[in-house]
Specification:
Blueprint: H1 3-10, E1 15-26, E2 29-34, E3 51-55, E4 58-68, E5 71-80, E6 88-93, H2 95-121, E7 126-132, E8 138-144, H3 149-164, E9 169-175, H4 179-184, E10 198-204, E11 208-211, E12 226-233, E13 238-245, H5 247-267, H6 271-301, E14 306-308, E15 311-319, H7 323-332, E16 338-347, E17 350-357, H8 365-376, E18 379-383, E19 387-393, H9 399-413
Parallel strand pairs: 15-16
Antiparallel strand pairs: 1-2, 1-6, 2-5, 3-4, 3-6, 4-5, 7-8, 8-13, 9-10, 10-11, 12-13, 14-15, 16-17, 17-19, 18-19
Helix pairs in contact: 2-3, 6-7, 8-9
């Protein structure tokens, strides 16, 4: 974007008198180009500004903006009246939205710099892959060999300390030739994305130095508060961190505090004791699930087969059991000339079906499922020649029809 556009954002201007330069149509939207504007298009993970363009006889809601050949294009929904090229208007952004995005974006810069510091002290390199800034909640996608909540907490605490110190946040412009020197001083930049002859650098005093096109606060104190709300691994060495800043973070903190106090009241304890008790409850739950899984495994292992054309046929119906245990246990039955057909009923009128065979048999289980079973029972499924599974509509009274279809398939093909 042109440097002049950035200067409009940096100055904090929220509305400008302007003249209409161009008008076009795009479906139900009206495309308006102005000679000057406070609106910022989406870039760097920060979404576009919303707002209005209006005068005494015309009003339109700006629902999207983009940059084209150095000009900002406003996509608008007309509320009233009409507008013509040359008309004088006032372009006004939705400052409440802009402010939320500003706090989130500055919060993201600060938090990642703190996270990088925390991880670096433990010998773990980290880099930002992408950012998704939102009004109520945002997301930071990070590449790191290891990441957990304890590291997040440490970085979160450091970020909020810096917020309380009201450190200055400043913007400067540097020519591309100066990137190498700034990089030596810790500049975070994706050089391949720089298209202009200059870069815009956002600095949080003593904490972060980043190339960025987004809008930012003037002081860390304006961020108010920062809280991480989610951590999820999205592949080996890749993580998504959700977070909130400003009023959204404050509300999240109060909400979590209310939930915590309810849990403590329910457990009859508080603080670290409540946490340790919850760990014990989870451990007990895990042990119970393991016992239940072992019992299911043994039930399947002890099924008695019937003989059909020299083939051992195992069949049984279960109620709301864990799929991975069913499949693992059933596969153990397929160590000789055998076919296994099982039903797992999850909810009224619906069931998950499993059909599998031992390796030496030439029976096609996927063909059995698609050509025979799914013709009788509405549903869908997939698999391969040795194992297939499907989700179907089936009442308890229809279960024998499924087992009979498998029996008939064995007799016909063996």
């Amino acid at each position: 974007m042109k440097k002049e556009l950035f200067e409009t954002y940096d100055s904090g201007i929220t509305e400008l008198p302007a003249r209409v330069k161009k008008i076009a149509k795009e479906g139900s939207l009206t495309i308006i180009t102005l000679d000057k504007t406070p609106f910022r298009p989406a870039s760097g993970g920060q979404p576009t500004d919303f707002g209005t363009i209006e005068n005494d006889s015309f009003s339109a809601k700006v629902v999207d903006t983009s940059e084209k050949e150095g000009e900002i294009i406003h996509k608008c929904k007309i509320v009233r009246g009409a507008v013509s090229v040359g008309n004088e208007v006032v372009a006004r952004i939705d400052f409440k939205r802009r402010k939320s995005l500003m706090l989130m974006h500055s919060g993201e810069h600060l938090f990642f710099s703190c996270l990088k510091k925390v991880l670096g002290e433990k010998g773990i390199p980290a880099e930002v892959e992408k950012v998704a800034i939102g009004e109520q909640e945002s997301a930071l996608f990070v590449k790191a060999s290891s990441l957990n909540w304890y590291l997040i907490f440490e970085a979160e605490e450091l970020a909020n300390k810096i917020i309380s110190e009201a450190r200055a946040v400043s913007v400067s412009y540097v020519r591309k030739e100066g990137i190498e020197e700034l990089s030596k001083n810790g500049l975070r930049i994706k050089a391949d994305r720089i298209k202009d002859g200059f870069i815009r650098v956002v600095e949080i005093s003593g904490a972060d130095l980043s190339a960025c096109t987004g809008t930012h606060v003037k002081s860390t104190s304006q961020i108010g508060f920062f809280i991480a709300t989610g951590l999820k691994a999205i592949g080996s060495g890749h993580f998504e961190i959700k977070f909130k800043a400003g009023e959204a973070a404050r509300q999240e903190l109060f909400s979590q505090a209310r939930i915590l106090r309810k849990e403590q009241a329910l457990l009859g304890t508080n603080g670290e004791e409540a946490f340790q008790l919850m760990l014990k409850i989870l451990d007990d739950k895990k042990r119970l699930e393991e016992k239940q899984q072992q019992a299911l495994f043994e039930r399947i292992a002890n099924l008695r087969p019937e003989s059909i054309s020299g083939i051992l046929f195992y069949s049984h119906s279960f109620e709301n059991e864990e799929q991975k245990v069913i499949v693992k246990a059933a596969s153990k039955l397929c160590n000789e000339k055998s076919v296994v057909a099982l039903i797992n009923r999850k909810e009224p009128g619906k069931a998950t079906l499993y059909v599998m065979r031992s390796k030496e048999l030439g029976l096609d289980m996927l063909s059995l499922l698609k050509d025979e079973i799914l013709r009788q029972f509405p549903g869908k499924g997939g698999g391969n020649s040795s194992y297939a599974t499907g989700e179907v509509e089936m009442t308890p009274e229809q279960e024998n029809s499924f087992f009979d279809a498998v029996r008939a398939f064995i007799r016909l093909n063996c």
